[in-house]
Q: What sequence folds into this?
């Protein structure tokens, strides 16, 4: 069952769109109202190069909400449950954000570009609308908009060597989530040690959308020495690594979840005294305790196809959770999944999930399945 | 150039998804993070049946932001530039909404279900996040969420006869945008005289997502007497009719535009005394006057393919506007387009747009191209 995607003016092309077409992109998804490459026709090779070598991904759809002005720091702190007081210029931080009811609505990386200038590098929901409403209603001295900044991710164990060949050896000193404004030839960009995999790597935040083709070719040419291939954020690797996917594991309108349920406890600084959106709700949730939590699952039987939508997890016919994503792991040589499961189940509870016409048994396990590199 | 769409758990299926697959959907787009059918393999027939007969569309992706509570009316009035004071229960109204800077961020139909309960039937942006932030920051007594309500549109000149055969002759008395809660067999739904075409028709807001397949089949069976075909919101008809498409004609992050530029002046009630988001900015915009405005264009030459992205409109090499969507109109037997154009051009200005490798000349004209039915 395969469908065409309609390419029209209601959705947006990434600055790398034409380059990915020239390089044989076969499938797209849509993320932040923008086409996001999904695969280039050889998923096995794209996975293997991410694990063993290096891949390049058009993740221009990971948009930057830019917050600039005298009250930018104050607004960011109010938007984030995490205490960001000690963040330095040049530092990025993973900052899950919640609505006033304490439900996760996005999990961006925040980049502090200057004392009065920040980016939120967002997952798939319109945080610009939400943040700008809060800023205006509070009368803060900030401008909330979207930056001209489109990431190209370079991921995999060979990423650092490749990126050093382009930018110099200083990139080896960049700590995780830190970044630096620089250029490649004269293309302006922000280079960050980051990316949506746990295989190591970097993101080049292109700051001139008219130059996507050039940047793509420069990375591709330098990458040929490392057998670089174009690819896309990889669902198998993300499940193996236990990386959260806002949109799949939780989405406000589909699977609303709070950050404690999603295992993000360490990023919710309720014991500090900063005021932030959802604080009161999160205090109540923490006090009441949670009834389900994100976990991994081993799925019995022969190799499964990836699921198209979430699947109920059942115990003796009753739903006790859901699998958000299920994949066959080539490294583990078995089926694995990620999802939410009730916390009050006895240790010997038999769990099942329906895969096509058959029931498969599930064994819950801690995340990640494979330790991070 | 055709690409597959990746169907995975990060995007959402409509309650009618499986039914559309069974009926041969060939292409999808994505709207409000949900798969939206784009065509079923015979675009000419889908267009012709919309114009001459009747079509059924899965527009479940047109989500309902539900606002309930004692302050619901107060919040809605604050969100909308249009004065909605006289709206009655059972009445819908088209209510373009703007951010605090006066830029359009969505153009929903508002349905007043009760004095304390409203839906915003939204275009493609996360108005739930925006509205809930404003409600919470203002401390209003409302709950903002998403209703279990997924529209199935029935459009075309035969729509009323078909819908009457299912629901009774009372539907003929329903005025445009008005609605009534009812059921089909025992499937709960809201029936509205509305839809994103100007060929007449209705939308059935299914209120139990588990029953999409049933509703689809009931409409299809009753529609067989009228040669109903499955289809999708139709870009050709919308350009002919001059219907605004938020996402294509304007989108905050791509083509920010204010409602005066988009020809929505009659819906911006600045001379009433109600306070609303963007009021001050819109007053300033109105006083300053606008420099461009939405219009139609005739495009010279042989039949064009639909454009994948907006196209610059140029006069002697300088950009003076953009075409957001360009189609070949079978009824007019010529190419037509919609877009924004500078207001200060001399009447004899020569306009051009690049289509593939060639330049085509453009003639601006008033909208709509074809009067509404």
A:
């Amino acid at each position: 069952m395969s469908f065409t995607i309609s390419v029209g003016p209601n959705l947006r092309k990434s600055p790398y769109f034409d380059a990915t077409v020239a390089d044989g992109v076969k499938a797209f998804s849509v993320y932040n109202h923008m086409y996001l490459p999904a695969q280039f026709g050889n998923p096995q090779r794209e996975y293997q190069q991410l694990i063993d070598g290096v891949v390049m991904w058009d993740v221009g759809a990971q948009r930057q909400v830019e917050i600039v002005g005298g009250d930018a720091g104050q607004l960011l702190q109010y938007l984030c449950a995490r205490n960001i007081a000690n963040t330095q210029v040049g530092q990025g931080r993973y900052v899950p954000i919640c609505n006033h009811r304490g439900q996760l609505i996005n999990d961006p990386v925040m980049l502090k570009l200057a004392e009065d200038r920040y980016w939120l590098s967002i997952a798939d929901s319109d945080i610009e609308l939400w943040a700008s409403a809060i800023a205006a209603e509070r009368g803060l001295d900030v401008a909330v908009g979207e930056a001209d900044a489109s990431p190209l991710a370079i991921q995999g164990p060979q990423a650092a060597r490749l990126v050093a060949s382009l930018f110099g050896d200083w990139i080896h000193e960049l700590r995780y989530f830190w970044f630096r404004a620089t250029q490649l030839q004269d293309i302006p960009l922000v280079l960050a040690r980051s990316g949506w995999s746990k295989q190591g790597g970097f993101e080049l935040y292109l700051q001139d959308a008219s130059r996507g083709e050039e940047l793509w070719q420069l990375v591709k040419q330098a990458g040929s020495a490392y057998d670089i291939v174009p690819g896309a954020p990889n669902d198998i690797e993300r499940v193996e690594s236990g990386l959260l996917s806002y949109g799949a594991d939780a989405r406000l309108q589909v699977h609303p979840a709070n950050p404690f349920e999603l295992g993000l406890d360490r990023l919710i600084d309720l014991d500090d005294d900063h005021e932030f959106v959802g604080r009161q709700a999160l205090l109540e949730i923490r006090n009441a305790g949670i009834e389900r939590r994100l976990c991994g699952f081993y799925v019995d039987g022969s190799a499964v196809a990836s699921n198209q939508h979430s699947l109920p997890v059942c115990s003796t016919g009753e739903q006790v959770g859901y699998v958000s994503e299920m994949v066959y792991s080539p490294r583990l040589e078995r089926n694995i999944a990620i999802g939410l499961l009730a916390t009050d189940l006895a240790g010997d509870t038999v769990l099942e999930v329906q895969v096509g016409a058959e029931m498969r048994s599930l064994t819950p396990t801690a995340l990640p399945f494979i330790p991070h590199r």
